[in-house]
Amino acid sequence: MSEIQHKETPHIKPEGAEIAETILLPGDPLRAKFIAETYLEDVVQFNKVRGMLGYTGTYQGRRISVMGTGMGTPSMSLYSWELIHVFGVKNLIRIGSAGAIQDHLNLYDIVFAMGSATDSNYGHQYNLPGHYSITASFELLEKAKKIADQKGQKVHVGNVLSSDIFYNADPTALQKWSEMGVLCAEMESAGLYMNAAHAGVNALCILTISDHIFRHESTTPEERQTAFTKMMEIALELA
């Protein structure tokens, strides 16, 4: 076992267990547990610190890990930074839920986040002399689209909003993003994409529509935890 697998951080303690170079990152750690128990073979748990469950196993003979990240850019950015810089992860795929803000999206539709608009100030740390365009890794995006096409699974590819704000004091904010063609709102992709770009590794955010914000439609917490299997199966084949 490589030396890197013996390392630990205050938030991830593998105790010698392997973390694969490709990892799926749901926000909900119980979704990580569901994926490990439903899809993976030869599963080993590599993390339980703060209840942020992480597992490594095999899917169709390929090693892959899955771990919860919590909600929001700060939490996603903390875990993804450690996975990249301490544990050598090369491909990070967020699989999450999102709220639709376009009329042509419906519950359970799948969105690939080609770009990530954001109201977060996370990118301020890089001291860039302008505004950074936050995008997915084309390598993972292209591969995911081909997998979806082979499965006959319709997906939407475009820009999403990665917001720090769930309960916004400005009731017009999401309408303004909608008018710019943004497909849906979530809370983690911007931090993940910036961490990956700065480190030179790959990241992709795959989302299932759990709510339609303007039509006041929604799924249940139980459905969000276990029913988003089409998204999960696309992501698993990226290993």
Automatic annotation (TrEMBL):
Pfam families: PNP_UDP_1. It catalyses: uridine + phosphate = alpha-D-ribose 1-phosphate + uracil; a purine 2'-deoxy-D-ribonucleoside + phosphate = a purine nucleobase + 2-deoxy-alpha-D-ribose 1-phosphate; a purine D-ribonucleoside + phosphate = a purine nucleobase + alpha-D-ribose 1-phosphate. Its EC number is 2.4.2.1. InterPro entries: DeoD-type, Nucleoside_phosphorylase_CS, Nucleoside_phosphorylase_d, Nucleoside_phosphorylase_sf. Keywords: Glycosyltransferase, Transferase. The keyword Transferase applies. The record marks 224 as: Important for catalytic activity. Phosphate binds at residues 27, 31, 50, 94-97. Residues 23-231 form the Nucleoside phosphorylase domain. The active site is at 211 (proton donor). One of its GO terms (molecular function) is purine-nucleoside phosphorylase activity. It comes from the Bacteria. A purine D-ribonucleoside binds at residues 11, 186-188, 210-211. It is an enzyme of class 2 (transferase). Belongs to the PNP/UDP phosphorylase family. Catalyzes the reversible phosphorolytic breakdown of the N-glycosidic bond in the beta-(deoxy)ribonucleoside molecules, with the formation of the corresponding free purine bases and pentose-1-phosphate. Homohexamer; trimer of homodimers. This is Purine nucleoside phosphorylase DeoD-type. It comes from Paenibacillus shirakamiensis. The gene is deoD.
